[in-house]
Amino acid sequence: MLEGLAGVVPPRAVGNNELPAAWETDDAWVRRRTGIGVRHWVAPGVSTGDLALQAAVRALDVAAAAPPDGLDAVTPPPVDAVIVATSTPDRPMPAMAPQLAHRLGLGQVAAWDVAAACSGFVYALATAAGVIGAGIAHRVLVVAAEVYSTLIAPDDRGAGVVFADGAGAVVLRRGEHGEPGSILGFDLGSDGAGHELIEVPGGGALARSAPDRYTPADLHFRMRGRDVFQHAVTRMTLSSQVLLKNVGWSVDDVDRFVAHQANARILSAVADRIPLPAGRQIANIDRVGNTGAASIPLALADAAGNSRLHTGQRVLLTSFGAGLTWGSAALLWPHLAPVPSVHGVGGPVRSA
Domain Beta-ketoacyl-[acyl-carrier-protein] synthase III N-terminal: where (predicted)? Predict the structure, then answer.
């Protein structure tokens, strides 16, 4: 059951007219191709872990303000496990989650990362639900955080106008099937044959074992935009349809639809092909850009903060990312304490 939610974006907002002159873009060009008006990039020295911490603190605060679950005679620890979904970790090793748990003062809880690119949040959500269902944990913190601005090549206009930085977090706890906050089902998939469509070629064991085959440019993000567009639309559409059938929902039953905020044209194409009734889709890509794994929880936090999500609504999530990976989830929206704005972050963060 979902009981806490929050999102953050860095204070630095970069409008389309502020993009590098060498990219030869203007506001109309970027909006027409992506639907994005503003994206947020971190300041020098700010890491993925810093954004993850801020989102986690906020989500835990929202969960702490929720009504008690009444399942334990003794007050449980804040969480029993921490899962971080990211494609932009602070370092290749170790995983980010143990350090995040330490910075939050959670003690020696289980903590690990999930690497499923822009599908990472849905994959991490499914992992958390499985951990809770298996009785391994009572309460799990899931954080999705990205600092894509550090992966973009200076001359890559295609990726540079789209990708951005941000983090979102949710707190899950054990609950009863069918109560508000319940996660009712998942659909997950992958196709490794498309692994080169979205990638960072360098920085891993392949490059270190054959350094003569790689250059510094291979440390930057690469994407074959047209191919990715078609895969994203097809995979998210089919995954959503499969999940709707599995949980017994019709398209008319879906009150809110939140897809990975990849590109406004992709979002419209998926909604049209499912097909969803008009007015059900939630999107904030115009104000935050594509924040990878963080995009779905950021969109949820933004919508919750603006009263676009209400207790008991049926919510469909779907995602697509590098790998290739995709995944969808269905949930009943919970009763949450007020969710703070995703904007205006950058002040002091509570530490252990």
Answer: 113-192
